[in-house]
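Dear Dr. L.,

I hope this message finds you well. Following up on our conversation about the binding site, I have prepared a predicted three-dimensional model of the protein together with flavin-adenine dinucleotide. For your records, I am including the exact sequence and ligand specification that went into the calculation, followed by the structure tokens. Please feel free to forward this to your student if that is useful.
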Amino acid sequence: MTDEAPAVPEPIFRDDVTVELVRSSAQDADVLFAARVSTAGEQSIDELGKDPARSKGLINYLMRDRHGTPFEHNSMTFLVSAPIFVFREFHRHRSGWSYNEESGRYRELQPVFYVPAAERKLVQKGRPGKYEFFEGTADQYKAVSSAMEDSYRQSYAAYQAMLAEGVAREVARAVLPVGLFSSMYATCNARSLMHFLSLRTKDERAKVPSFPQREIEMVAEKMEAKWAELMPLTHAAFNEHGRVAP
Ligand SMILES: Cc1cc2nc3c(=O)[nH]c(=O)nc-3n(C[C@H](O)[C@H](O)[C@H](O)COP(=O)(O)OP(=O)(O)OC[C@H]3O[C@@H](n4cnc5c(N)ncnc54)[C@H](O)[C@@H]3O)c2cc1C
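The resulting structure of the complex is given below.
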């Protein structure tokens, strides 16, 4: 037996986020049967696939005229791994979203931290709400990565020191920064996802431009790519009509 404090695990520094589609029940046909009940009643589900051109037209019409509820009869569950500051923004999206996130009370938080990649623009110009971002210099990038890595090491060592003293995880976690990675399941439907994408992506096709933080946009882009595979007609109509949620 030795009295030495246990070694603090070596931190992992990440510059990416991950999004996995863990389950889904979502296809363009879900929009169609929900919309066609208006005119076909309970037969609407039998009408699926009868006339693809008409189906595309119906989805376009619903999107254009903002008939939103037919886009709610589907479900996608994503497993997202991203820094806590991304989740803080994410959880502001209330309608049509369900979340469950890992706990800092019930499990020891792992030393995985966000350090931006060299291509992440570092300098902001303009006014609040409409910033433009520009490349940083090599010195700025070095300053960012070394300040973050030092600070992360220090705070994680303090967290570990408190745990080693027998302090509860829910108390010790107060020293951990928002650059720490967390993970959550997020479940939504196409309508709530479109609203999220309209606000959390920057896209020249958008009728109403948004200026999201790059890191939540990285998550949004990955979700959008997975959704586009599931519901290509709905995704195309969303783009065609200015990326406004119906
Ligand atoms: C670029 C950007 C910058 C931001 N900056 C800040 C900031 O500085 N500070 C800050 O606090 N937040 C900020 N936010 C968060 C923002 O205020 C919203 O909380 C977030 O975008 C979620 O939008 P939402 O309420 O439309 O979405 P959801 O909560 O998903 O709601 C979807 C829609 O449902 C309806 N709805 C939901 N709840 C209600 C309700 N209670 N009453 C009436 N209608 C409702 C609305 O039509 C709403 O658009 C920012 C967001 C973006 C995209």
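In brief: The chain has one domain: 12-27+74-240.

With kind regards,
A. P.
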